[in-house]
Structure formats: C-alpha cells, structure tokens
Design goal:
Layout lengths: L1 H14 L29 H11 L10 E3 L2 H9 L32 H6 L4 E5 L3 H9 L5 E4 L4 H14 L3 H20 L8 E6 L6 E3 L4 H8 L3 E2 H4 L7 E3 L2 H7 L3 E5 L4 H12 L9 H4 L3 E3 L2 H4 L4 H16 L1
Parallel strand pairs: 1-2, 2-3, 4-6, 4-8, 8-9
Antiparallel strand pairs: 4-5, 5-7
Helix pairs in contact: 2-6, 3-6, 6-7, 7-14
InterPro entries: ABC_Transporter_SBP, ABC_transptr_periplasmic_BD
Keywords: Signal
Family: Belongs to the bacterial solute-binding protein 8 family.
C-alpha cells in the first residue's frame, strides 16, 4: 500500500515536470531529432502531419484573448510576442513582462471560475493533460487547443504551430533558427569519444523514477549524443518508470543525472547519503568515476525552450569532461 502511494505521488510530480511547469506533463510522444549542421532541417512526413493536425485546433482568425494553463506554453507565447490574459501559478520563473497578468491556478488544477471571468477566446494547454483541461473548460463553453510540451523537439514543433496560429511566423522562425545554430555549435564541439551511457533519476530518497528519451531532460541528453540506458538498454517506452535496482545494476551507466527539487548541491549530498544504504549503487561505474551529478532545477525542472541552450551546454560539459 505504501509503495502504491509513493508511486502515485511521484507520478503526480512527474506530471507537474514538462509543460505544466511543475514536472513533466508526460506523454509517449515520439522524440523527433533535427539534422545538425542545418539551421532549417527538413521535416519528416510524420512531423509535417503533426504540425498540420495541431494547427487544425486553432481558429482561422487568431484569437485575441488567450489563457495559458502551461508554463511552457506561457513562455512560448512570450517568444512570439503574444500577451495572454491569464497564466498559470507556478514557482518557476515566468516572463518578466507577464508579472501583472492574472493567475489562473496551477497547470494541473486550474481555477475554472477564474478562467471564465477572463472571458478568453481560447485556452491553451499541454497535450499530455488535454482530457483533464478539456473536461473542465467544456463545462463553461470555452474552446481549447493543446500542444506537445514533453520534450525539446516537442517544444520546437509547438512554437512553430503557435507562430502560424497567431500570424507570428517571423518571430517563431527567427527564434528557432537562432536556437538551431546554438544547438549545432554545442553538438559540433562534443569531443570525439565514445558516447557515455546515462541514467536520469527524478525524485528523492527511495522514491526515484527513471526518465527516458521522451522527457525534456532525456531529449536534451539525446541531443548531446549520450545514450540513455532506460531507452537503449532497458528498452523502456514509458516516459517515467519506477526504479528497479536490478535493471540499473545490469545497465551499469557511466553517468547518473539527478533531477530533484531545490538546491542541486543539497540534493546530491542527500542522494549520496541515501544510496549508502544500498551498496549496489557504489559499485556502478558512475560512482566509481565520480560521474554523479544533480542538475539545476531552475534549468532542467520544466520543459523550456529558453533554457534549452544552457541545458545542452551544461550536459555536454558534465558528460564529456
């Protein structure tokens, strides 16, 4: 019973780490990678179809009054110079020019009455919790549109869709071109050595979950060419899976990355203290080679295009030093 409760709490926390802005709004969306060295990579057929399907949610005339229920979506609206009438409450940093915009509650449990009072033309949210938000706003006859925000490639697609939906293609294209150039520069500077195998942990204490490539952090790790053992070795398709020590021991990762709330130094100290209770951890290559790192939650704690370049640079330095 206790294990079920812990797992449920971690699942809610995970739903709060991507686009919600409190954890990753988990989906099983396929992670799409771009071709490095080309700032305008050709789209695959599946990506083109995805953009077309997502764009069909939006009205022909751009909505004038928009409420954002996701931190990731709020950030992207700012990128394309759209000012929403309502934004989510969150501990994450929102755009400075959105400080005085009314808050509509958390991304997972928005205040429907508050949203209704703002009289929006459109409610924008993250695709992974579409059913939950749709059910709430349908009761007050509001239209919603939902964008994938789980991974780094998801965010790129969503920004392009937003640019098109609000006649802000130039803003979106300019931003994405710069982002791709920065990404290409980082990837091209990766040392010519064997790609490290990586285990990404989310949570605290004995309640860790493992993150695969379809999560935000996982997709950044993949972008810098590291191998996520959850995807590559364990062959897990779920975005988040409970920790199984036998699987971890068998995978024996070269590096371990910890995503946890609060100060990363304190989180790492606590993690190392906790794992001493299980000697199997210290036998892993990551521990033997001092390749255990807590990531900065302000950078990696939610799916963010604005933080992506910094995140990629930090991961490259951490995994290849």
């Amino acid at each position: 019973m206790i294990k079920k409760v812990v797992f449920s709490l971690l699942t809610v926390s995970a739903l709060a780490l991507a686009g919600c802005g409190t954890a990753d709004e988990t989906t099983k969306a396929e992670v799409k990678t771009s071709g490095h060295g080309d700032t305008t990579p050709a789209k695959s057929k599946s990506e083109t179809a995805q953009i077309k399907e997502l764009s069909a949610q939006f009205p022909a005339e751009p909505a004038k009054k928009v409420v954002a229920t996701s931190v990731s979506v709020t950030e992207m609206l700012d990128i394309v110079s759209i000012t929403p009438v309502g934004i989510p409450s969150t501990t994450h940093k929102l755009p400075d020019n959105f400080t005085d915009i009314p808050k509509i509650g958390s991304a997972v449990e928005p205040d429907v009455e508050k949203i209704a009072s703002l009289n929006p033309d459109l409610v924008l949210g993250s695709e992974s919790i579409k059913d939950s938000i749709d059910k709430k706003i349908s009761n007050i006859n509001l239209k919603g549109a939902y964008l994938p925000t789980d991974s780094y490639p998801d965010l790129k697609v969503s920004l392009e869709v937003l640019g098109s939906a609000f006649d802000k293609e130039k803003n979106a294209t300019t931003y994405l071109t710069k982002l791709q150039k920065d990404e290409d520069k980082i990837v091209s500077s990766i040392p010519d050595k064997k790609a490290p195998t990586v285990l990404i942990l989310f949570g605290t204490g004995s309640s860790f979950m493992l993150m695969n490539d379809t999560t935000y952090v996982g997709s950044l790790v993949k972008t810098v060419k590291a191998k996520n053992v959850v995807t590559e070795t364990m062959k897990t398709k779920e975005s988040y899976v409970p920790l199984n020590m036998e699987d971890v021991t068998a995978a024996n990762p070269d590096a371990i990355l910890l995503v946890s709330h609060g100060d990363p130094t304190a989180a790492l100290t606590q993690f190392k203290a906790d794992v001493k209770k299980n000697g199997a951890w210290e036998k892993l290559n990551a521990f033997k080679n001092d390749k255990v790192q807590a990531l900065d939650y302000d950078i990696f704690g939610y799916a963010s295009l604005n933080n992506a370049t910094t995140g990629l640079e930090q991961l490259k330095d951490t995994l290849y030093k």
